[in-house]
Every structure is written in C-alpha cells, then in structure tokens.
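Lab channel / #folding
Pinned by the channel admin:
"Please post every new chain as: sequence first, then the structure tokens as a reply. Keep commentary short and put observations after the output so the thread stays searchable."

First post following the new format, from NK:
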Amino acid sequence: MSKNRSTRTFLGRGNFAEVTRVGEILRMETVGGMLLVGAAIIAIIWANSPWADGYFTVRDITIGLPSLHLDLTIGQWASDGLLAIFFFLTGLELKKEFVIGDLRTPATALVPVAAAFGGVAVPAIIYVIINLGTPSGLQGWAIPTATDIAFAVAVLAILGSHLPSALRIFLLTLAVVDDLIAIVIIAIFYADGFSLVPLLLTLIPLAAYAVLTHVFPRFFGRSAWAPWVILLPIGIVAWALLHSSGVHATIAGVALGFAVPVRRMAKHGGPDSGPGLAEVLEHRLRPLSSGFAVPVFAFFAAGVAIGGVDGFISAVTDPVMIGILAGLVLGKPIGITLTTWLLTRFTKARLDGSLAWIDVIGVGLLAGIGFTVSLLVAELSFGPDSPHGDHAKIAIFTASVLAALLAAIVLRARNKHYRKNTEEESVDLDDDGIPDVYQGRDGESARD
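Reply from TO:
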C-alpha cells in the first residue's frame, strides 16, 4: 500500500479550471490554424504558377524609413512586424503558465518542460549529424526544433479527434515551453549586427509599458481605446528600438507580453472581480494574430519556387532538407516520448491508467508540425541568395504534412478510446457546472 502512495501519476486529468482554460485557447487556435495552412498553400501555388513574378514582386516591395533602419520589404514587415503580435500572445501565454498554469508547480511542470527540451534537443542533434558534411547548412540547426500549436490544433479539428484533456494540456504546455526555447535561441543565435545603445534604450518603453499595465490594469482592461492609443504606441517604440539593436524585433513582443499582469483584477481592495489584463488583451488580440498576422506571415514566407521535378530533386538531396524532415518527423516524437519515458524510469511516476504510450507518441508526432517559428528560423538562418533557404521551406512544409498524416493515423486509431474518456469527462450528474470526474480534485476552486 505504501508503494502505491509513493507512486505519482502524470498526464492525469488535472483540475477543471485548467482544462477549461486550455480548451478555450485551443478552440480559438483552430480557425487560425486552418487559415495558416490555407495561406501557405495559396503562396506555394502562386509561387509556382505562370504568375509567380507577381508574387515575388509584391513580397519584395520595400517600404519604410531608412533613417530609422525600417526600410523593409513587405515580406520582412510580415516576419519582423506582424509576427511580433504572435510573439506578444506567446509572452502572455508563457506568463500565464508560469503564474496560474501548470508551469507554476514544479512537480506538474516537470513532464512537459522535460519533454519540450527533449523535443528540441533530439531534432537539433539529428539535423547536425546529417549536415556535418555541409558547413553552410549547419546554421539551420534550430529549424526543426519548433512546434506550431495552431497547425497542430487545426489537424485535430480536421480529424475530429476526441483527444483527452490531459493530452491537450500536455500538448499546449509543451508547445508553450517549446516557444520559450525558440525565443531564447532566436535572441542568442540570430542577432544581426548587434548594437548595445538601442538595446538599452528599449528598456525605457518596456518599463513604461510595465508600470502602466500594473498601475492601471482595470483602466486598460475596461477601456476599448486605451490599449490602442496608449499601449500600442509604446509597444511600437520598443519594437523599433529592438529592431535597431540587431536582436530580432519579435522578441519585443515577448517582452511586452511578460510585462502584462496576469492575475484577476480586484475592485477597491475587494475580492477578484474580473479577468486579468493578460486575459483581456489575449481575447482582443488573438483574432488579429490567428486571423491576420500569422496567415499573412505564412503567405509571404512559404512561397517558394520549387522549379519543377529537377528543383524538387535538388531539394530532396540537400542535407538541409533531409535534416529538417528527419528532425521534425522522427526527432520530435522520439525526443518527447523518450524523455517522458525516462522520467518514469528515474522518478516514482507512472503514466495515467487511462492513457497508453502510443498516446504520447501521437502527441509527439503532432509536435513535429513545425511551421510558423520554423519558417522564421529558416529565414534567419539562410540569406535570400542561399539555395538552402528555399529547400528549408520546402522541407518544413513537407515535414509538417508528413507529421500531420502520421499523427492522424495514430490518433484516429485511438479515437474510440478517446471518445469514451471524453464522455466520462462530460458527465455532470449534480448539475453544478463541474464534471463529476473532477469533483474532489479542485473543489470549489474549479469555479474560479
């Protein structure tokens, strides 16, 4: 009996509040993921059509202010500017996970954090091994390390999969940590022409942004115009200064996201009376990010002239493409599953009885769908004149499709079992708004 008490279960249902929060996030990402995929497909078709010149002409139009180092092409505005909105939401989600989500508790965070690191390290190692004989390709080592949660959720929606709440939370938390690792990699390894003065000046608008959002959270949360009229200009200044420093400007989005308070807002020192400012801003900006910013970025980043059969053969034989394919399709599920399994061997933990290891493999395959951040890293890794750049983008799209198909095979095979779990999670006999399987786990706190 003492042995059972000392055995910790992971990938269990968790608490209802977290399940509800994650479910809302994933529902919002579903449409965005479909738009993302659609935009990428349109770009690839256009870039390989008789009208391809029009696509590349539009993408390469330069606009902006040279005096502020902001004379960028439309494609660069999409990757450096619009994608900052996506990274702002990433910063918000990261902070929420650390403050009120699963990452706030070390014991709960251990599995997804370790799995995320395994899912980054193994693809990178595989890529480097394959490209050891290609020095010019080694700089793309970080391309297969990313996970695109929007694309993955879109796949789940298309499949109609009844993925259990525990696996959904695991996938989202893993992807959030994965994004954090990608942010660190971009900031450290992909700075271009680093300049200290603009970087230090960036701290001024960041500090102003943090002070305003913490001192007046209710004002910005309730006002429809204040975030756009006050916070947005401050954010743009921070973004422009960081861009001038040589650090990729999207990092400004993350920093601004971290500056926003997360906890629910109290009124006149009383009890919690409303959602935190982070949640308010997320609800307002996620449609802009998922419905416009990320699809537009994908549209301008994914358009690659394959060059017919000969061009595709050239890409397939490039170690860069082979490394990305192997890293995403094989490295991701291997790294995530192996790391999770090792935790069960070296800690007193076991997989929840409602799940099997094939479920973890399925999530690992979904995590192999690396698109948005992978495309960004590919652009940062290879210049416009490098053939590796186009080959990398072909590889990212191909690997994401392969990972999606393999995940579909695994998850569809388990759908009957998942449906049974989902039905259990929806039973609420006492009609109190909390499914019965969560009663006794989080009690009344589940309502908050």
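NK: The chain has one domain: 2-426.
TO: also worth noting, The first strand starts at residue 8 and ends at 10.
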